């Protein structure tokens, strides 16, 4: 049954869903890595494609930017379309000197100031964490590809233009690898609904060195991340 934000028919969404923030990354990844990709959603321009990877059905669907947006799509994909494995494929800013632009960061856990789940967790400081099986398979796939990869705690921020530089300093001092804006709520929702979730991120810019990936190089750098996510899902 179509939802307020997804017009796909039942059966048009695969149990495995890759979630980039950017709907055009969904289009590019589906057309580059899937066999027979077809458009299954374009409500509000949030593109979703379903195809196969090595014979396995996969949907690649935009999540939009930020946890409230991701929450809408992940909720509908899980509760109305039966998604079981959800892997975010996103960009992030590096927060440690040992990490370089183009490296991959896999989010073992995700620190936040708040999430859309705050209302139900109340006094509980729930620790959003990745599915270990997916994480292990993603690490194996990344090592096999030779992609420089870092695994650990990430920061899912509520704002891109942060007026609190002291927060980043505290995150850096506590070993946070990188900052992005969706993974924590994806992990919360996966825990609530008995799904598997993981965030595989490509470093697009560096909060300490201020280096940034030129837009001309983004696609080729993001390709490793997509392949790592697909291999983790089906290993
Ligand atoms: O590249 P995506 O997947 O959108 O991820 C990152 O980029 C956006 C901010 O520019 C946020 O969504 C952040 O999480
Ligand atoms: O959320 C994000 C994504 C990329 N780079 C950042 O600094 N923040």
Write the layout of secondary structure elements.
Layout: E1 16-19, H1 23-33, E2 35-41, E3 48-53, E4 56-61, H2 67-79, E5 85-94, E6 104-111, H3 118-121, H4 132-145, E7 149-156, H5 165-173, E8 178-180, H6 183-193, E9 196-206, H7 215-234
Parallel strand pairs: 1-4, 1-5, 5-9, 6-7, 7-8
Antiparallel strand pairs: 2-3, 3-4, 5-8, 6-9
Helix pairs in contact: 2-6, 4-7
Family: Belongs to the PNP/UDP phosphorylase family.
Catalytic activity: a purine D-ribonucleoside + phosphate = a purine nucleobase + alpha-D-ribose 1-phosphate; a purine 2'-deoxy-D-ribonucleoside + phosphate = a purine nucleobase + 2-deoxy-alpha-D-ribose 1-phosphate; uridine + phosphate = alpha-D-ribose 1-phosphate + uracil
Function: Catalyzes the reversible phosphorolytic breakdown of the N-glycosidic bond in the beta-(deoxy)ribonucleoside molecules, with the formation of the corresponding free purine bases and pentose-1-phosphate.
Summarize the structure.
The chain has 235 residues and is α/β, with parallel strands linked by helices. It is built from seven helices and nine strands; from the N terminus they run βαβββαββααβαβαβα. The protein has a single domain, classed as Nucleoside phosphorylase domain (Rossmann fold, 3-Layer(aba) Sandwich).
């Amino acid at each position: 049954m179509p939802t307020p934000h997804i017009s796909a028919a039942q059966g048009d969404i695969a149990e495995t869903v890759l979630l980039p923030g950017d709907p055009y990354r969904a289009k590019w990844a589906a057309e580059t890595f899937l066999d027979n990709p077809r458009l299954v959603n374009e409500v509000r321009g949030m593109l979703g494609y379903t195809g196969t990877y090595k014979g396995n059905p996969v949907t690649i669907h935009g999540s939009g930017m930020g946890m409230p947006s991701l929450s809408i799509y992940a909720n509908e994909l899980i509760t109305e379309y039966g998604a079981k494995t959800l892997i975010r494929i996103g960009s992030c800013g590096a927060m440690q000197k040992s990490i370089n632009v183009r490296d991959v960061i896999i989010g073992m856990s995700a620190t936040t100031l708040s999430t859309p789940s705050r209302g139900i967790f109340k006094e509980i400081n729930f620790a959003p964490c990745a599915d270990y099986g997916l994480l292990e398979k993603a690490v194996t796939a990344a090592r096999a590809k030779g992609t420089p990869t870092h695994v650990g705690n990430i920061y899912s921020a509520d704002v891109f233009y942060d007026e609190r530089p002291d927060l980043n300093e505290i995150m850096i001092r506590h070993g946070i690898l990188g900052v992005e804006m969706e993974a924590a709520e994806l992990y919360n929702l996966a825990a609530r609904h008995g799904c598997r979730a993981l965030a595989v991120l490509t470093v697009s810019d560096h909060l300490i060195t201020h280096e940034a990936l030129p837009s001309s190089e983004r696609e080729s750098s993001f390709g490793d991340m997509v392949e790592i996510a697909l291999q983790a899902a089906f290993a």
